Amino acid sequence: MEIRTKEIQIMKWTLQGVYDDSTLAQIIPLYEALGFKARLLPFFPGLVPGCSECIQDSPGKYRVLYTKKIDSL
Questions:
Q1: Is-contact 36 71, C-beta < 8 A?
Q2: Nearest-CA neighbor of 42 among 69, 68, 24?
Q3: How is residue 43 annotated by DSSP?
Q4: pTM for this predicted structure
Q5: What is the DSSP letter of 36?
Q6: Edge-to-edge, what's the strand order for the sheet holding 14-20?
Q7: How far apart, in whole angstroms, are the C-alpha atoms of residue 27 and residue 8?
Q8: Residue 36 belongs to what domain range?
């Protein structure tokens, strides 16, 4: 998974955070309205520093959101 994360960083995607589906349904349209493209990856404990402790019991419920300004594509 670390390889995929590094690949995304090289491609200029910015990590926004780890969210559940109901939160993503609210914030992705906001990012898109502001001119960003959204990309989601599965959450794995240890992937995002500081997030693993609170959600490690059910990592399948969460996804990692990356964004990129559309004119940067």
A1: no
A2: 24
A3: -
A4: 0.76
A5: E
A6: 14-20, 62-69, 36-42
A7: 20
A8: 2-72
Contact 15, 48 (CB under 8 A): yes
Give pLDDT tens digits for 14-72.
Answer: 989 889 999 999 999 999 999 999 999 888 776 666 656 667 777 788 899 999 998 75
* Residue pointed to by tokens 């520093």: 49
Tokens of 33: 């309205």
Q: List pLDDT tens digits, range 17-26.
A: 889 999 999 9
Query: Count of domains in the chain?
Result: 1
Token digits of residue 63: 């996804």
Backbone angles phi, psi at 19, to 5 degrees: -140, 160
Instruction: Please state the separation of Cα 62 from the chain's center in Å.
Output: 9
